[in-house]
Amino acid sequence: MLPSEQPNIFEAFAVTARQKPAKTAVSFLGTMYSYRDLLELVERFGASLANLGLGQGDRIMMYIPNSIQFVVTWLGIQSIGAVAVPISPIYTSRDLQYIADDTGAKAIVCADRNFGYVKQVMGKTPLDRVIVTNLADLLPWWKRAFGLIADKVPVGKVENAPFVVPLRRMISQGGSKPPAPATAPDDIAEILYTGGTTKHPKGVPLTHGLFLVSALEQLAVRNPLFPMDEDVILGGAPLFHILGQTCSLSTVVLGGGTLILQPRINLDAVFDSVQRLSAKTLIGVPAFYRMILEHDRVDQYDLSSLRYCFSAGDVLPVEVAKRWKDRFGLDIYQGYGATETCGGIAMSPTDRPNPPLSMGMKVPSKEIMIVGPSSTEPVQPGDPGELLVSSDRMVRAYLNKPEETAEGFVEIDGRLWYRTADIVRQDENGFLYFVDRTVDTIKHKGYRVSASEIEAVLQEHPAVIESCVVGVPDPKVGQRIKAFVVLKKDVKGITGYELIRWCRGKLVAYKMPQYIEFRDMLPKSKVGKLLRREIRSEEKKRLET
């Protein structure tokens, strides 16, 4: 089925569900949910959202981990024409308040363990409704009971307040179908937040049409290996991230395959699920594959069902790819994309050999141009330059960020292009290779981390007068985060440990600096601009010696 045959995400999913009602759509904590089951849950939740007065265009935040609840609520939001705003379940109240204000979200679906953070922002944001769920909520009653009795299911404290609604009650009391909105391909389906060079994350509005085209395109890469509807995907990437959505959640929307979900990555559980459910596909960042290779019990499991292993989010080290091939006889296929392009810009084909370090070939829906730095003039074939990307249903602006939009998007000869700020090159066969980054973005464990955001938090400390944050190359996690700090002259006794403690509670775990180095001064240009490139150059030379 082509995405253009369905006007929106929910209709695409509903068609898939009606074609394969008895097939398993999602496996979560050992429970199988058929497409029939999933469609009923989605429609009941959508109807209850409508009963709460939510509808077309309303923004609804999602603050939950990978789970059956994520799939149900994400699709339920689409069913009423509302806009999903998925965020990381490890975000703090600081991030929560910023995003709620930025989107104007009216409601939030949160895990009970995150309720405390949500309560902190109530009354300070547009949020007026909190839908709360526990990880075991949609499991069979006997599993819920066993989990609570055996203390296997973490439970958070939730206030009994008028603005709080339990998810289980919404689904049990929901009607059979929500009202059907006239949601068009160019309507916004969700807003994802991405890091970058700014102090705060940027909201990226993705339309139904763009998501469907990108999702089907990334699923179809596997067609030479097996039929799309026979895929069983173990998603090692979070569903609030574009990688987890277009490469794994997409199988439920369009592919007709099975998605295996875990609330957090536990490698023994990953291996057991692959073996027990005959998973064909693994999705993850390079660090995920390294962790598997270094796990001391991996040989105790049968992983022979795997056919397609996909890595994105950062460059896959050659040694990891080689060790994987030697151990499992499988290639790890690479891809390259961005939230702003709804995932894949380049994907490694599965019907031919891929050169080492290549991140694949351009996908059909995208147009690319490689230009000189700070230029719109194409470089000579084979030369490195900044990658620009365009597509028919592309993102055209960041949410409420005109300055960042002007920096990130450029019009050339009447066509809009997104500036990736990544330096790449393309060989004579069309394969793309990552060379360098042009902006102050750190890639840590597959996440894009804003150096400016960490610097802003450090500079809030009363003893700090200046800070500079850079990424230090690391083969295990891509880059580690290092901060260079200048203290006020009259301050004594401040340690790096104290500054790292200061960052806790203000930054999520993957944004925390791992190293602090104190300096008397930081390099600056003649006009006083911080020269991060000089610090990066110093660190590079230090690593080479």
For the record, the CATH class of the largest domain is: Alpha Beta
Number of domains as seen in the coordinates: 2
Can you count the beta strands?
26
Largest beta sheet, briefly? 14 strands, mixed
> Segments where pLDDT lies below 50 for 5+ residues?
none
Strand content: 25-35%
Description:
The chain has two domains: 3-328, ANL, N-terminal domain (Rossmann fold); 441-544, GMP Synthetase, Chain A, domain 3 (2-Layer Sandwich). 31% of the residues lie in helices and 27% in strands. The chain is built from 16 helices and 26 strands. Strands 1, 2, 10, 11, 12, 13, 14, 15, 16, 17, 18, 19, 20 and 21 form a 14-stranded mixed beta sheet that branches. Strand 19 and strand 20 (415-426) form a beta hairpin. Helix 1 (9-19) crosses helix 9, helix 2 packs across helix 7 and helix 11 (286-293) packs across helix 12. The N and C termini lie far apart (55 Å).
